[in-house]
Design goal:
Length: 297
């Protein structure tokens, strides 16, 4: 049997197939992050560690052929939650990985990508986030105002008792609206400005002072709560026009819950007899409706 080596076998000279090591990426990244950052090489240059002005350190590794950035979060480092990562960076259990990265990208491009990723993890964005905006506006409003954030993070809500005002953010515009969506205030503004929470708090205060926003509970919520008191022989339904609701009693008589001037009332749809309801909240209005509906037959 011949032991002669085929001349077609690929035998690159040392240092030519991969002109840089993983540890070289770390060393090229450190100066991009600033003077407080330092790099260390792992054994044989197969890993690289970055340390800066934080408890946490970052390690650049190759796992199953993919370039990865591993780290552990520490609460005392104060990193922002939910950072906006650069394009081409994905999350895995141990940290982040770069699915499109390969050595032919070059040392400069790879180190720039790693540096941008670390900056995204450690830097607080100047752009206001919905939760931060709601928290700041609630604090400005004072008293018993509270706030919550939608699960998808797209909207925040300011609440007090039965009142709710929803705040949505888009590029260059903020919208504040009441629970019934009957009243809205829109204003354009720089979403980076520290004055934004004050503007939202002022908009809520204005809407809160308007009868349609503050004094009038949502008619459908009132109808639903009243039906719960009246029993399952009655039913609540959306009204024929926006901002109204209907109740059908056990005798198939229909009643409309709607605005009367600056107030809220219930009306027998057969003969238009009506009664006004208190306007201090859904529960109070529902109890009054349940008590007064019998006198409208």
């Amino acid at each position: 049997m011949s032991t002669t080596t085929s001349p077609d076998v690929y035998r690159p000279a040392p240092g030519t197939e991969y002109p840089f090591s993983v540890s070289d990426i770390a060393r090229a990244t450190a100066p991009l992050l600033g003077a407080d950052w330092h790099a260390e090489s792992g054994p044989w240059g197969t890993t690289g560690r970055l340390s800066g002005p934080f408890i946490a350190t970052f390690e650049i590794v190759v796992d199953e052929g993919d370039l990865c950035l591993t780290f552990t979060r520490y609460l005392n480092d104060g990193w922002p939650q939910g950072p906006e990562l650069p394009e081409g960076v994905d999350v895995f259990d141990g940290g982040l990985w770069f699915p499109d990265a390969c050595s032919v990208d070059g040392l400069e491009a790879l180190s720039a990508k790693v540096a941008a990723t670390i900056r995204a993890l450690i830097t607080h964005s100047t752009r206001v986030q919905p939760a931060d905006l709601a928290a700041a506006a609630a604090q400005i409003l004072g008293g018993d105002w509270g706030y919550e954030l939608d699960p998808d993070g797209a909207r925040s809500h300011l609440r007090r008792d039965d009142e709710q005002f929803t705040v949505t953010l888009t590029e260059g515009e903020v919208c504040v609206r009441d629970a019934s969506d009957n009243e809205r205030m829109r204003f354009r503004g720089d979403l980076d400005t520290p004055a934004l929470p004050r503007q939202v708090a002022r908009a809520v205060s204005i809407l809160h002072a308007r009868p349609s926003a503050h004094h009038l509970p949502n008619p459908y919520l009132v109808a639903e709560a009243a039906v719960a008191l009246l029993g399952d022989q009655c039913g609540a339904h959306p009204g024929r026009i926006s901002g109204t609701a209907r109740i059908r009693n056990q005798d198939a008589t229909w009643f409309s819950v709607e605005r009367f001037g600056n107030g809220l009332g219930i009306r027998n749809e057969d003969d238009d007899r009506h009664a006004l309801l208190p306007i201090v909240g859904v529960d109070t209005a529902a109890r009054a409706l349940a008590e007064q509906i019998g006198g409208l037959f």
